[in-house]
């Protein structure tokens, strides 16, 4: 086959395909950080549960808080490192707010199992802790990508906005020039 063969030059991926590819990469990175957070969460939970006399849900809340801290570092510097970094205070506040909602979801499942149904064995606690983490993870993925780690506009959006602004500035300059000519024209009419 020659250099110009169509078999060697595949068509560029469609916009939909590019969006799906980006979402898959983002979900994989989110999953990697989330997996590390899951390990931290379960390890701290079992460590606190077996070395202290704290109640199950309190041990779970402590473990969740530790996992939230480690996850923020992973999300900011790995999963969403290419996202907007201009509003770090806003980002951190929203991250903590949505993480708190996730904490309530996660530990609400454990609370219902432990105190609602009396399922309090170590195995049952871990199963319901894991289930709560799974449900809360779906909420966190949606909220973090939608509200916390905002996407930077793509080059085509920036170019479109810049051309729009350039056109608006040109129209403004023309309007100002026309307005500046009007008093001169009126003065000429009065003189003539």
Summarize the structure.
By secondary structure, the chain is an all-alpha fold. The protein has helices at 15-51, 56-79, 88-116, 122-148, 155-191.
Topology:
Layout: H1 15-51, H2 56-79, H3 88-116, H4 122-148, H5 155-191
Helix pairs in contact: 1-2, 1-4, 2-3, 3-4
What can you see in these coordinates?
The longest helix is centred in the N-terminal third of the chain and has 37 residues, at 15-51. The protein is built from five helices and no strands. The model has no long low-confidence stretch (mean pLDDT 86). It has helices spanning 15-51, 56-79, 88-116, 122-148, 155-191. It is mainly alpha-helical and 192 residues long. The chain is elongated and about 100 Å long.
The run of helices and strands is: HHHHH
Uncertain stretches of 5 or more adjacent residues? none
Q: Structural class, please?
A: mainly alpha
Largest sheet: none
| Whole-number mean pLDDT | 86
Strand residue percentage:
under 5%
Which percent bin holds the helix content? over 70%
Number of strands: 0
**End-to-end CA span:** 80 Å
List the keywords.
mainly alpha, 80% helix
